[in-house]
Amino acid sequence: MRKNLLITITALLLVGLMAVPVFAQKTVLDFVWFSDGVEGEVLKDIIADYKEEHPDVDFNIIEVPYNELNTKIKTMVAGGNPPDLARVSNPGELSSALLNLNDSIGQDYLDNFVESTHPYVMVDGKMLAIPIDVTANGIIYNKDYFEAAGIDVPDTEEELDDLWTWEEWANALEKVVENSDARYGLAYDYSPHRWSTLLYQAGGSFFSKDWSEVTINSPEGERAVEFFVELHDRNIIPESIWLGGENPNTLFRSGLTAMHFAGNWMLTNYRDNIENFDWGVAYMPKGKIRSSVVGGKFVAGFKDSDNKEAAVDFLKYFSSQEVNAKFCEESLFLSARTDNSKLNYSFGSDMFEIFSNELAVSPPEAGSDWAYNEAMSRIYDDIRQNIVKSIQHEITPKEAVENMEELAKSEIENIEN
Amino acid sequence: MYRWKKKIAPYLFVLPNLIIFSIFIVFPALFGFYVSFTEWDVLTSPEFIGLGNFIKLFQSADFWAILSRTLIYVFSVVPITFGLSMVLAIILDRNIKAKGFFRAIFYLPTMLSFIVIGVSWRWILGNNFGILNYLLDLAGMAPVNWLTNSTTATIMVIFASVWARVGYFMVMFIAGLQGIPGVYYEAAEIDGASKWQQFRHITFPLLKPTSLVVVVLSTIQAFKMFGLIKVMTTGGPGDSTTYLVQEIYQQAFQVGDMGYASAMSVMLFLILGLLTIVQFKVSNRGGNAYE
Predict the structure, then answer these.
(1) Which UniProt keyword terms apply here (chain B) (predicted)?
(2) A246 sits in which H/E element
(3) SS3 breakdown of chain B: % helix, strand, coil, rounded to 5?
(4) What are phi and psi of A165, to 5 degrees?
(5) Which residue in A190, A243, A377 has the most chain B C-beta atoms within 10 A of its own C-beta, making it the best mutation to test that interface?
(6) Cα B63 to Cα B243: distance, rounded to the nearest angstrom
(7) A59 pairs with which residues across the strands?
(8) Distance from CA of A392 to the nearest CA of B (A)
(9) C-alpha distances out from residue A345 to A140, A284, A327, Å
(10) Is residue A354 helix, strand or coil?
């Protein structure tokens, strides 16, 4: 009897031990993620669907605030424990750690995605990430305030021939402050990326399209700084944003400003948080030309990851037409896929159309400048400092663009060396 | 055997602390020192460049501007903190009413993290959402750009830094005051010394050891002040409240130049070391006050 019991226990233990490798074989993908709105929840749904088809794969979502994203990834890489996947906005900045997808997915795959995203993911001939969604800078406005002031805001295609000039825009913003409860005309994001919209509208750029020349020191660059300073001098933009770090979203949401210069990523936030006034998206004014600035979010694998094959498989799944459509529709994003240009949004289709139209007329430099991650990440903060010093009248707009030029040249020299 | 055990025991007791101290302080510090001689973006291997980062540092006009701003900040915060904490200690060491309550009130900020203090002051001083400007508005006065003007922002950062730590040093001074024998004051009074003379010739000299600790600690704290400023002004407007540690963070984690950031850290270490040595030398010059 005792012998039988011993045999049974031994058998059970052996079965148990044999079962351990079965569980251990499950691949767990570490996925570093950040959210602007509800996309983290949408990702979880997509992962649940994926896991039904791939029961041997599990995910460890490491959610971090956007500001901490690169620090987190760099720390993980430096510690010899890189994630398997990450959602990033600047693949070039992490290029030395990312997985080259040329062989596993192939560069032809990029043909499925809008061209403006290509310079972001192609670094030295290597495809380092897959575009998922694109972003467009633009303006969101308080409909109640503009109605109260009797100002018509261009927000339909029929009004495209009659868009505001910069001066008309500034005057309209002053008028809305005079004739509504708005304290200021415009909340403008504390970001050189957002400021650069004015640069492209003025006809300028930071670099030539092939990055061979620094072009910021131009009359157009100077005009863009000058106009931005003027918006502050006329108290249209509260100086508390660029000089005091006050949150522009809060200023707009609380009804203190009549307009917010941000981008399409703010739509879910405002849909969920603004209740006491009606709001919409308007076409931006034109300088010499019309322009928005394209940006994007990408998903990349890591070359030192232990699960490269599983990561690539998920990348293909996540960027496929059907899954990408679900992700962008439910997150309220503009898709980076050309075959998902028309999506069925449950909210604000007309607003997305405005952002898409703005992107369609933007010059190539509005994309290529910001795809030059290696240089941009080094000069980003100094661009901001020079604009701030101009607002403070410590330097002239001319000196600001001269400083930016000098700095960009010196950093490019450092990169080349 | 017993003698051997007796010899080894103290080392075993300090061993856990030594291990933790080495892992989290000594090795990272030595590694940081090594990194200061390299070019390193974290993602690739460090490349040895000798004194390259230090040469770049000394040639950078930005570095000297930041260093001079840092010195202005430190040499404002330290004397004010020192003077104020000593005055508060002397007042609250006397037999006044609600002494315990006032001690608690002044000590309270030191129990908060610098982040919480920074956020609180930001909400008090904000241009549009700040409580102070709201109160000024209620009183019919024009709002003040507390944090969007370089001068007022610097003053406010100094003020918040002093407010955050004055209670801590006040407690140290109170402990120092309580260690002074009362007979000195009795003898001085018999000799007809005024209160000022008593302070000058008894209190101040006998507080010298405490004063030295307060000056050294507050200097180190001021040089290392990061969280409070990061959330209160984010180094602005522009870079007017960007000091050495903010710039180190910026270079390391925004620009991704760990070598350059480490070179700045080494400079900060040398400055702090030098100042501490000077403070000890100056303090020792007068000899022991009890002698």
Answers:
(1) Cell membrane, Membrane, Transmembrane, Transmembrane helix, Transport
(2) none
(3) 75, 0, 25
(4) -85, 170
(5) A243
(6) 10
(7) A29
(8) 9
(9) 18, 22, 11
(10) helix
Question: Residue A384: closest CA among chain B residues belongs to which residue?
Answer: B238
Per the domain annotation, does A17 fall within a domain?
A: no
Long-range contacts of B276-280 (CB under 8 A, 24+ apart): B276/B216, B276/B219, B276/B220, B279/B212, B279/B215, B279/B216, B279/B219, B280/B212, B280/B216
Which residue, A36, A59, A268, A290, is CA-closest to A163? A290
CA quadruple A382, A383, A384, A385: dihedral positive or negative? Answer: positive
Report yes or no on A19 lying in a domain.
Answer: no
CB of B28 less than 8 A from some CB of A:
no
Residues, chain A: 417
Q: Of the candidates A314, A338, A357, which is a domain's last residue?
A: A357
Q: Quote the ipTM score.
A: 0.74
pLDDT digits (tens, 9 = 90+) for A154-197: 998 888 888 999 999 999 999 999 999 999 999 999 999 999 99
Q: Which residues of chain B have pLDDT under 70?
A: 1, 285-291
Q: Are A154 and A141 in contact (CB under 8 A)?
A: no
Quickly tell me which residue has 């950031």 as its tokens.
B261
Rounded (10°) CA dihedral A34, A38, A43, A48? 140
Number of domains in chain A: 2
Please report the pLDDT score of residue B183 as a whole number. Answer: 92
The domain of A41 spans 24-134+295-357
Contact criterion met (CB below 8 Å) for A135 and A362: no
Q: How far is B198 from chain A (nearest CA, A)?
A: 47
Comparing CA positions, the residue from A173, A133, A131, A126 lying closest to residue A153 is: A173
Q: Is B237 on the interface with A (CB under 8 A)?
A: yes
Question: Which of A357, A356, A355, A383 is CA-nearest to residue A369?
Answer: A383
Q: Which of A86-100, A318-332, A367-381, B49-63 has the lowest mean pLDDT?
A: A367-381
The domain spanning residue A242 has which CATH number? 3.40.190.10
Tens of pLDDT, residues A15-63: 555 555 445 578 999 999 998 878 999 999 999 999 999 999 999 999 9
Full DSSP string of B58-100: HH-HHHHHHHHHHHHHHHHHHHHHHHHHHHHHHHHTS--TTHH
Q: Which residue has the tokens 């400092």?
A: A385
| CA–CA separation, A123 and A119 (whole Å) | 7
Q: How far is CA A99 from the centre of its chain?
A: 21
- Contact between residue A119 and residue A91 where contact means Cβ atoms under 8 Å apart: no
Domain contains A8: no
Please state the φ and ψ torsions of residue A63, each to the nearest 5 degrees. -90, 130
